[in-house]
Fold this protein.
Amino acid sequence: MATEIKVPTLGESVTEATVARWLKKIGEKVAVDDPLVELETDKVTLEVNAAAAGVLSEIAADEGANVEVGGLLGYIDGAASAAAPARKPAAAAAATSTLPVSTAAPTTAVAADLDKSGPAAKKLVAENALDPSVITPTGKDGRLTKGDVLAAIDAKPAAPAPVSPPPAPPAAPRDAGPREQRVRMTRLRKRIAERLKDAQNTAAMLTTFNEVDMTAIMALRETYKDVFEKRHGVRLGFMSFFVKACVAALKELPMVNASIEGDELVYHNYYDIGVAVGTESGLVVPVVRDADKLGFAEIEKTIGAYGKKARDGKLTIEDLTGGTFTISNGGVYGSLMSTPILNPPQSAILGMHKTMKRPVVVGDKVEIRPMMYLALSYDHRIIDGREAVTYLVRVKDGLEDPQRLLIDL
Protein backbone atom coordinates (compact mmCIF):
# COMPACT_ATOMS: atom_id res chain seq x y z
CA MET A 1 0.00 0.00 0.00
CA ALA A 2 1.37 3.40 -1.00
CA THR A 3 1.62 6.21 1.56
CA GLU A 4 1.38 9.80 0.36
CA ILE A 5 4.13 12.29 1.27
CA LYS A 6 2.47 15.68 1.77
CA VAL A 7 3.58 19.22 2.58
CA PRO A 8 3.03 19.74 6.32
CA THR A 9 1.66 22.86 7.99
CA LEU A 10 4.39 25.48 7.63
CA GLY A 11 3.44 27.98 10.28
CA GLU A 12 1.38 31.10 10.70
CA SER A 13 0.66 32.91 7.40
CA VAL A 14 3.02 30.60 5.46
CA THR A 15 1.13 28.73 2.74
CA GLU A 16 3.80 27.86 0.18
CA ALA A 17 7.29 26.38 0.09
CA THR A 18 9.92 25.38 -2.46
CA VAL A 19 11.36 21.87 -2.75
CA ALA A 20 15.04 22.47 -1.94
CA ARG A 21 16.40 18.95 -2.34
CA TRP A 22 15.38 15.33 -2.02
CA LEU A 23 17.36 13.41 0.60
CA LYS A 24 16.26 10.00 -0.75
CA LYS A 25 16.22 8.60 -4.27
CA ILE A 26 13.48 6.64 -6.01
CA GLY A 27 13.85 2.98 -5.08
CA GLU A 28 15.71 3.77 -1.86
CA LYS A 29 14.54 2.13 1.34
CA VAL A 30 13.23 4.43 4.09
CA ALA A 31 12.33 3.88 7.73
CA VAL A 32 9.72 5.70 9.79
CA ASP A 33 10.85 9.27 10.59
CA ASP A 34 13.71 9.18 8.06
CA PRO A 35 14.17 12.66 6.51
CA LEU A 36 12.94 12.54 2.92
CA VAL A 37 13.01 16.06 1.50
CA GLU A 38 13.97 19.60 2.49
CA LEU A 39 11.50 22.45 1.95
CA GLU A 40 12.39 26.14 1.92
CA THR A 41 9.90 28.69 3.19
CA ASP A 42 10.19 32.44 3.44
CA LYS A 43 11.78 32.05 6.86
CA VAL A 44 13.29 28.61 7.45
CA THR A 45 14.34 25.36 5.82
CA LEU A 46 12.55 22.32 7.21
CA GLU A 47 12.65 18.56 6.66
CA VAL A 48 9.69 16.32 5.82
CA ASN A 49 10.06 12.90 7.44
CA ALA A 50 8.68 9.53 6.40
CA ALA A 51 5.35 8.64 8.00
CA ALA A 52 5.76 4.96 7.05
CA ALA A 53 8.50 2.49 6.24
CA GLY A 54 9.02 1.17 2.75
CA VAL A 55 10.56 2.37 -0.49
CA LEU A 56 10.38 5.82 -2.06
CA SER A 57 8.44 4.80 -5.15
CA GLU A 58 7.57 8.15 -6.75
CA ILE A 59 8.55 11.83 -6.57
CA ALA A 60 5.67 14.10 -7.50
CA ALA A 61 7.41 17.46 -6.91
CA ASP A 62 10.93 17.88 -8.26
CA GLU A 63 13.60 20.09 -6.73
CA GLY A 64 12.82 23.75 -7.38
CA ALA A 65 9.05 23.20 -7.54
CA ASN A 66 6.73 25.42 -5.51
CA VAL A 67 4.27 23.46 -3.37
CA GLU A 68 1.38 24.48 -1.14
CA VAL A 69 0.48 23.22 2.31
CA GLY A 70 -1.12 19.79 1.90
CA GLY A 71 0.34 19.38 -1.59
CA LEU A 72 1.62 16.00 -2.78
CA LEU A 73 5.38 15.45 -2.74
CA GLY A 74 5.61 11.74 -3.51
CA TYR A 75 4.76 8.20 -2.44
CA ILE A 76 6.24 5.53 -0.18
CA ASP A 77 5.45 1.95 -1.22
CA GLY A 78 5.32 -0.21 1.87
CA ALA A 79 5.19 -3.46 -0.08
CA ALA A 80 8.02 -2.84 -2.51
CA SER A 81 11.35 -4.51 -2.00
CA ALA A 82 14.30 -2.22 -1.66
CA ALA A 83 16.66 -4.82 -2.94
CA ALA A 84 17.84 -3.92 -6.39
CA PRO A 85 18.41 -6.86 -8.77
CA ALA A 86 21.92 -8.04 -8.59
CA ARG A 87 23.85 -6.82 -11.52
CA LYS A 88 25.66 -9.59 -13.36
CA PRO A 89 29.36 -8.99 -13.54
CA ALA A 90 30.54 -8.34 -17.00
CA ALA A 91 32.39 -11.37 -18.40
CA ALA A 92 35.97 -10.49 -18.95
CA ALA A 93 36.97 -11.91 -22.28
CA ALA A 94 40.52 -12.98 -22.15
CA ALA A 95 41.86 -11.79 -25.42
CA THR A 96 44.92 -13.77 -26.41
CA SER A 97 47.00 -12.48 -29.22
CA THR A 98 49.74 -14.45 -30.87
CA LEU A 99 52.51 -12.42 -32.25
CA PRO A 100 53.82 -13.70 -35.57
CA VAL A 101 57.34 -15.01 -35.19
CA SER A 102 59.51 -15.00 -38.22
CA THR A 103 61.09 -18.38 -38.68
CA ALA A 104 62.74 -17.56 -41.89
CA ALA A 105 66.42 -18.51 -41.74
CA PRO A 106 69.11 -16.80 -43.74
CA THR A 107 69.71 -18.38 -47.08
CA THR A 108 72.02 -21.35 -47.07
CA ALA A 109 74.42 -19.62 -49.46
CA VAL A 110 74.87 -16.59 -47.26
CA ALA A 111 75.31 -18.66 -44.14
CA ALA A 112 77.76 -20.89 -45.85
CA ASP A 113 79.72 -17.96 -47.24
CA LEU A 114 79.93 -16.34 -43.78
CA ASP A 115 81.07 -19.65 -42.31
CA LYS A 116 83.87 -19.87 -44.82
CA SER A 117 85.02 -16.30 -44.14
CA GLY A 118 88.03 -15.58 -42.07
CA PRO A 119 87.84 -14.60 -38.39
CA ALA A 120 88.73 -10.98 -39.09
CA ALA A 121 85.80 -10.57 -41.49
CA LYS A 122 83.40 -12.26 -39.09
CA LYS A 123 84.51 -9.98 -36.26
CA LEU A 124 83.97 -6.83 -38.34
CA VAL A 125 80.51 -8.02 -39.43
CA ALA A 126 79.50 -8.67 -35.83
CA GLU A 127 80.96 -5.44 -34.42
CA ASN A 128 79.24 -3.29 -37.04
CA ALA A 129 75.94 -5.21 -37.07
CA LEU A 130 76.18 -5.76 -40.81
CA ASP A 131 74.04 -8.02 -42.95
CA PRO A 132 76.54 -10.27 -44.79
CA SER A 133 73.99 -11.02 -47.47
CA VAL A 134 74.27 -7.50 -48.90
CA ILE A 135 78.07 -7.46 -49.01
CA THR A 136 79.62 -8.51 -52.31
CA PRO A 137 82.24 -11.20 -51.60
CA THR A 138 85.50 -11.17 -53.58
CA GLY A 139 87.26 -14.07 -51.88
CA LYS A 140 87.72 -17.55 -53.24
CA ASP A 141 84.56 -19.64 -53.39
CA GLY A 142 82.41 -16.64 -52.40
CA ARG A 143 84.16 -15.90 -49.14
CA LEU A 144 83.96 -12.50 -47.51
CA THR A 145 87.26 -10.93 -46.98
CA LYS A 146 88.26 -8.32 -44.46
CA GLY A 147 88.54 -5.86 -47.33
CA ASP A 148 84.98 -6.65 -48.46
CA VAL A 149 83.66 -5.83 -45.00
CA LEU A 150 85.72 -2.63 -44.71
CA ALA A 151 84.47 -1.50 -48.11
CA ALA A 152 80.90 -2.10 -46.99
CA ILE A 153 81.51 -0.08 -43.83
CA ASP A 154 82.91 2.81 -45.85
CA ALA A 155 79.95 2.72 -48.21
CA LYS A 156 77.41 2.66 -45.34
CA PRO A 157 75.64 6.03 -45.13
CA ALA A 158 76.44 8.03 -42.00
CA ALA A 159 73.80 8.13 -39.35
CA PRO A 160 71.97 11.43 -39.49
CA ALA A 161 72.93 13.85 -36.78
CA PRO A 162 70.36 13.96 -34.02
CA VAL A 163 67.90 16.76 -34.54
CA SER A 164 67.09 18.81 -31.49
CA PRO A 165 63.35 18.82 -30.86
CA PRO A 166 61.72 22.17 -31.45
CA PRO A 167 61.19 24.18 -28.28
CA ALA A 168 57.91 23.39 -26.59
CA PRO A 169 55.29 26.09 -27.10
CA PRO A 170 54.60 28.15 -24.00
CA ALA A 171 52.03 26.54 -21.77
CA ALA A 172 48.58 27.94 -22.20
CA PRO A 173 47.33 29.83 -19.12
CA ARG A 174 45.56 27.54 -16.70
CA ASP A 175 41.82 27.65 -16.99
CA ALA A 176 40.61 29.67 -14.05
CA GLY A 177 37.14 28.15 -14.34
CA PRO A 178 33.94 29.77 -15.55
CA ARG A 179 33.90 33.54 -15.34
CA GLU A 180 30.47 33.48 -13.78
CA GLN A 181 28.13 31.05 -12.15
CA ARG A 182 24.36 31.24 -11.93
CA VAL A 183 22.70 29.77 -8.86
CA ARG A 184 18.99 29.87 -8.13
CA MET A 185 18.18 32.12 -5.19
CA THR A 186 16.79 30.24 -2.23
CA ARG A 187 13.33 31.12 -1.10
CA LEU A 188 14.80 32.48 2.13
CA ARG A 189 17.28 34.70 0.28
CA LYS A 190 14.51 36.06 -1.97
CA ARG A 191 12.34 36.80 1.05
CA ILE A 192 15.22 38.56 2.82
CA ALA A 193 15.78 40.69 -0.28
CA GLU A 194 12.08 41.57 -0.52
CA ARG A 195 11.79 42.52 3.15
CA LEU A 196 14.93 44.63 3.23
CA LYS A 197 14.01 46.46 0.04
CA ASP A 198 10.49 46.97 1.33
CA ALA A 199 11.93 48.51 4.49
CA GLN A 200 13.99 50.94 2.41
CA ASN A 201 11.06 51.81 0.16
CA THR A 202 8.47 52.19 2.93
CA ALA A 203 10.12 53.48 6.09
CA ALA A 204 11.67 56.91 6.49
CA MET A 205 14.86 55.28 7.71
CA LEU A 206 17.56 57.19 9.50
CA THR A 207 20.58 56.13 11.61
CA THR A 208 22.11 57.78 14.66
CA PHE A 209 25.45 56.76 16.22
CA ASN A 210 27.10 56.77 19.59
CA GLU A 211 29.94 54.91 21.28
CA VAL A 212 30.09 52.93 24.49
CA ASP A 213 32.98 52.28 26.84
CA MET A 214 32.96 48.53 27.48
CA THR A 215 35.33 48.70 30.48
CA ALA A 216 32.69 48.16 33.17
CA ILE A 217 30.95 45.26 31.43
CA MET A 218 34.25 43.54 30.65
CA ALA A 219 35.40 43.92 34.27
CA LEU A 220 32.07 42.66 35.62
CA ARG A 221 32.11 39.70 33.28
CA GLU A 222 35.70 38.83 34.19
CA THR A 223 34.87 38.93 37.91
CA TYR A 224 31.77 36.73 37.79
CA LYS A 225 32.10 34.58 34.65
CA ASP A 226 33.37 31.46 36.44
CA VAL A 227 30.85 31.46 39.28
CA PHE A 228 28.08 32.42 36.81
CA GLU A 229 28.85 29.45 34.56
CA LYS A 230 29.18 27.09 37.52
CA ARG A 231 25.79 28.09 38.91
CA HIS A 232 23.79 28.46 35.70
CA GLY A 233 25.56 26.09 33.31
CA VAL A 234 25.99 28.77 30.65
CA ARG A 235 28.67 31.34 29.90
CA LEU A 236 28.08 34.99 30.70
CA GLY A 237 28.29 36.79 27.38
CA PHE A 238 27.84 40.39 26.32
CA MET A 239 24.50 39.92 24.53
CA SER A 240 22.51 39.57 27.77
CA PHE A 241 23.78 43.00 28.88
CA PHE A 242 22.70 44.52 25.55
CA VAL A 243 19.26 42.89 25.71
CA LYS A 244 18.75 44.20 29.24
CA ALA A 245 19.97 47.69 28.32
CA CYS A 246 17.71 47.82 25.26
CA VAL A 247 14.65 46.67 27.20
CA ALA A 248 15.25 49.28 29.93
CA ALA A 249 15.47 52.00 27.29
CA LEU A 250 12.36 50.70 25.48
CA LYS A 251 10.35 51.04 28.68
CA GLU A 252 11.35 54.70 28.89
CA LEU A 253 10.78 55.40 25.18
CA PRO A 254 7.83 53.19 24.08
CA MET A 255 7.64 54.60 20.55
CA VAL A 256 10.89 52.74 19.77
CA ASN A 257 9.00 49.52 20.57
CA ALA A 258 6.03 50.47 18.38
CA SER A 259 5.02 49.72 14.78
CA ILE A 260 2.71 51.09 12.11
CA GLU A 261 -0.37 49.18 10.93
CA GLY A 262 -2.30 51.11 8.31
CA ASP A 263 -3.12 54.49 9.80
CA GLU A 264 -2.51 53.39 13.39
CA LEU A 265 0.48 53.35 15.69
CA VAL A 266 0.65 50.10 17.68
CA TYR A 267 2.46 50.39 21.03
CA HIS A 268 3.58 47.00 22.28
CA ASN A 269 3.47 46.45 26.03
CA TYR A 270 5.72 43.42 25.77
CA TYR A 271 9.37 43.14 24.80
CA ASP A 272 10.16 40.40 22.27
CA ILE A 273 13.75 41.04 21.22
CA GLY A 274 14.99 39.63 17.92
CA VAL A 275 18.64 38.62 17.84
CA ALA A 276 20.00 38.51 14.28
CA VAL A 277 21.96 35.32 13.49
CA GLY A 278 23.93 34.68 10.31
CA THR A 279 23.54 31.19 8.80
CA GLU A 280 24.70 29.54 5.59
CA SER A 281 21.27 30.20 4.10
CA GLY A 282 21.12 33.85 5.12
CA LEU A 283 20.27 36.13 8.01
CA VAL A 284 17.56 34.94 10.40
CA VAL A 285 16.18 36.64 13.50
CA PRO A 286 15.00 34.31 16.28
CA VAL A 287 13.04 36.07 19.00
CA VAL A 288 13.74 36.14 22.75
CA ARG A 289 10.17 36.28 24.11
CA ASP A 290 9.28 38.53 27.06
CA ALA A 291 12.91 39.49 27.55
CA ASP A 292 11.94 41.91 30.32
CA LYS A 293 10.90 38.94 32.49
CA LEU A 294 14.12 36.96 31.95
CA GLY A 295 17.30 37.05 33.99
CA PHE A 296 20.79 37.19 32.50
CA ALA A 297 21.18 33.40 32.63
CA GLU A 298 17.81 32.78 30.94
CA ILE A 299 18.67 35.21 28.16
CA GLU A 300 22.06 33.58 27.60
CA LYS A 301 20.51 30.10 27.53
CA THR A 302 17.81 31.18 25.08
CA ILE A 303 20.31 32.82 22.72
CA GLY A 304 22.64 29.82 22.98
CA ALA A 305 19.83 27.41 22.13
CA TYR A 306 18.84 29.53 19.12
CA GLY A 307 22.44 29.61 17.93
CA LYS A 308 22.66 25.82 18.01
CA LYS A 309 19.34 25.43 16.21
CA ALA A 310 20.49 27.92 13.57
CA ARG A 311 23.75 26.01 12.97
CA ASP A 312 21.84 22.72 12.73
CA GLY A 313 19.16 24.20 10.47
CA LYS A 314 16.46 23.41 13.05
CA LEU A 315 14.90 26.84 13.59
CA THR A 316 11.11 26.80 13.29
CA ILE A 317 8.64 29.36 12.02
CA GLU A 318 7.57 30.00 15.61
CA ASP A 319 11.17 30.82 16.60
CA LEU A 320 11.29 33.60 14.01
CA THR A 321 7.77 35.01 14.24
CA GLY A 322 7.08 38.36 15.86
CA GLY A 323 9.61 40.58 17.56
CA THR A 324 9.23 44.20 18.58
CA PHE A 325 12.88 45.29 18.41
CA THR A 326 16.04 43.74 16.93
CA ILE A 327 19.73 43.64 17.90
CA SER A 328 22.28 42.84 15.19
CA ASN A 329 25.92 42.12 16.07
CA GLY A 330 28.15 42.83 13.10
CA GLY A 331 31.12 42.94 15.44
CA VAL A 332 31.46 39.16 15.39
CA TYR A 333 32.50 39.52 11.74
CA GLY A 334 34.87 42.43 12.43
CA SER A 335 32.57 45.31 11.47
CA LEU A 336 33.63 48.60 13.02
CA MET A 337 30.58 50.64 11.98
CA SER A 338 27.46 50.07 9.86
CA THR A 339 23.90 51.25 9.29
CA PRO A 340 21.59 48.28 9.96
CA ILE A 341 18.35 48.00 7.98
CA LEU A 342 15.01 47.80 9.78
CA ASN A 343 13.29 44.46 10.26
CA PRO A 344 9.67 45.32 9.26
CA PRO A 345 7.25 46.04 10.83
CA GLN A 346 9.58 47.02 13.68
CA SER A 347 10.47 50.68 14.00
CA ALA A 348 14.08 50.36 15.19
CA ILE A 349 17.15 48.12 15.20
CA LEU A 350 20.38 48.39 17.21
CA GLY A 351 23.69 47.59 15.55
CA MET A 352 26.57 46.35 17.72
CA HIS A 353 30.13 46.45 16.40
CA LYS A 354 33.66 45.34 17.11
CA THR A 355 35.19 46.35 20.44
CA MET A 356 38.55 48.08 19.86
CA LYS A 357 40.96 49.84 22.17
CA ARG A 358 41.06 53.56 21.41
CA PRO A 359 42.36 56.67 23.14
CA VAL A 360 39.52 58.52 24.87
CA VAL A 361 39.33 61.46 27.24
CA VAL A 362 38.40 60.38 30.77
CA GLY A 363 38.14 63.39 33.05
CA ASP A 364 41.20 65.43 32.13
CA LYS A 365 43.30 62.49 30.99
CA VAL A 366 43.63 60.50 27.80
CA GLU A 367 43.26 56.78 28.46
CA ILE A 368 43.15 53.64 26.34
CA ARG A 369 39.67 52.12 26.65
CA PRO A 370 37.81 49.24 24.91
CA MET A 371 35.27 51.12 22.82
CA MET A 372 32.36 50.01 20.65
CA TYR A 373 30.37 52.05 18.15
CA LEU A 374 26.58 51.68 18.41
CA ALA A 375 24.17 52.44 15.57
CA LEU A 376 20.42 52.86 15.90
CA SER A 377 18.47 52.77 12.65
CA TYR A 378 14.88 53.92 13.11
CA ASP A 379 11.68 54.77 11.24
CA HIS A 380 11.37 58.55 11.29
CA ARG A 381 7.63 58.24 10.68
CA ILE A 382 7.26 57.00 14.27
CA ILE A 383 10.38 58.12 16.08
CA ASP A 384 11.67 61.67 16.15
CA GLY A 385 15.37 62.43 16.17
CA ARG A 386 15.29 63.57 19.82
CA GLU A 387 13.71 60.28 20.88
CA ALA A 388 16.15 58.19 18.84
CA VAL A 389 19.19 59.98 20.27
CA THR A 390 17.78 59.78 23.79
CA TYR A 391 17.14 56.04 23.38
CA LEU A 392 20.71 55.38 22.27
CA VAL A 393 22.08 57.44 25.16
CA ARG A 394 19.98 55.39 27.60
CA VAL A 395 21.41 52.17 26.13
CA LYS A 396 24.91 53.61 26.46
CA ASP A 397 24.26 54.60 30.09
CA GLY A 398 23.06 51.13 30.97
CA LEU A 399 26.08 49.46 29.38
CA GLU A 400 28.65 51.78 30.93
CA ASP A 401 27.07 51.44 34.37
CA PRO A 402 25.65 47.87 34.33
CA GLN A 403 24.65 48.06 37.98
CA ARG A 404 21.75 50.26 36.79
CA LEU A 405 20.40 47.23 34.90
CA LEU A 406 20.43 45.11 38.05
CA ILE A 407 18.37 47.59 40.09
CA ASP A 408 16.09 48.60 37.18
CA LEU A 409 17.24 52.21 36.78
Remarks:
- The chain is about 30% helix and 25% strand.
- Residues 187-406 form a domain with the Chloramphenicol Acetyltransferase fold (CATH 3.30.559.10).
